[in-house]
TrEMBL record:
Domain of life the protein comes from: Bacteria
Region (Disordered): 111-141
Protein name: Uncharacterized protein
Bias-annotated ranges (Basic residues): 121-132
Length: 141
């Protein structure tokens, strides 16, 4: 297991008192544990969640099943046995991850090493430099 999968497993164990955990809640808990300010709306990679769930089942005897809602958000529910997604749901989620922002192993490494400075400040695409026409005439007197 890589570091992001370990962090997902740690967050799921911490949130084990809940019967339903959304992807956003788990990602928020991971950012909170790491004290990571960047990527505030980033989700989690499905394959990392699945690996973490099977790891938790082996080691902590907690069982989670993965479900997908209509907006392709991952829902993690406590169940009798660990279960992944069916083939169609898996394909749909993996397709949608291509356009999503997800927390990666590199983000976790950067946060743990202390080099994560957070996200860049928001800059509008339409910001333009303002031209001060009066500065050309200031010394005209």
């Amino acid at each position: 297991m890589n570091q992001i999968q370990e962090e997902i497993a740690k967050a799921l164990v911490q949130l084990s008192e809940k019967s339903l955990i959304t992807e956003a809640v788990a990602a928020k808990k991971i950012r909170e544990n790491l004290k990571f300010d960047g990527k505030p709306k980033a989700g989690l990679c499905f394959q990392d969640i699945e690996a973490a769930i099977f790891y938790i089942e082996e080691n902590n005897n907690l069982h989670y099943a993965v479900h997908l809602n209509s907006a392709n958000d991952i829902l993690i529910k406590q169940s009798e046995a660990a279960a992944g997604l069916d083939a169609d749901s898996r394909k749909r989620r993996l397709q949608s991850e291509k356009s999503m922002s997800v927390l990666t192993n590199g983000d976790v490494k950067a946060a743990l090493s202390g080099s994560a400075s957070g996200s860049k400040p928001y800059k509008k695409r339409t910001d333009k430099k303002r031209l001060n026409v009066n500065k050309n005439y200031d010394d005209w007197e």
